[in-house]
Amino acid sequence: MAAYPTGVAVVTAFDRELTPWGMTVSSLSSVSLDPPTLLVCLRHLSPTLDALVHNGSFTVNLLHDGARSAAELFSSGDPSRFDRISWEKPESVGGPHLVDDAHAAADCEVDHMHRTGTHVVVFGKVTRVVHRSAAQPLLYGLRQYASWPRSA
Ligand SMILES: Cc1cc2nc3c(=O)[nH]c(=O)nc-3n(C[C@H](O)[C@H](O)[C@H](O)COP(=O)(O)O)c2cc1C
């Protein structure tokens, strides 16, 4: 899929001790407008997936093009990833919001899940969307990050 460019998001959730978890994803897709539903595909051994399953809710943080280091941090497996960025707890259901790195965040309740091979497809019903800035989205394709071209 390297030749199919996408945006970049960080899926976050809290575990039962309210410890924050999160991972970089490009498998995000819109599914339905009514009810507003999206999906992400997460590796089945992921601690972020464990937290999301336990909590029944998660947040999709859409990264802006100044957030490459956050995308790298959340794909690194670093156990202290949340000590190295700014985040806050959402008002209601969901996972941590990445306050400096996301241009928007969608809080979701888990609707249903489907295991296929190494990954679990998680369908989330969107309960709230927070727009943080008008920054351009971060892009990923051909195994590298990119920015949306500026118009002349
Ligand atoms: C740009 C990019 C997109 C990624 N997309 C996904 C994805 O959609 N699903 C997935 O399971 N892993 C994806 N990964 C890999 C995870 O971010 C990585 O395995 C991470 O360490 C998983 O976190 P965890 O330890 O909490 O599971 C992606 C990595 C990068 C760099």
Automatic annotation (TrEMBL):
Keywords: Oxidoreductase. InterPro entries: Flavin_Rdtase-like_dom (IPR002563), NADH-dep_flavin_reductase (IPR050268), Split_barrel_FMN-bd (IPR012349). It comes from the Bacteria. One of its GO terms (molecular function) is FMN binding. Residues 1-147 form the Flavin reductase like domain. Pfam families: Flavin_Reduct. This is Oxidase. It comes from Lentzea guizhouensis.
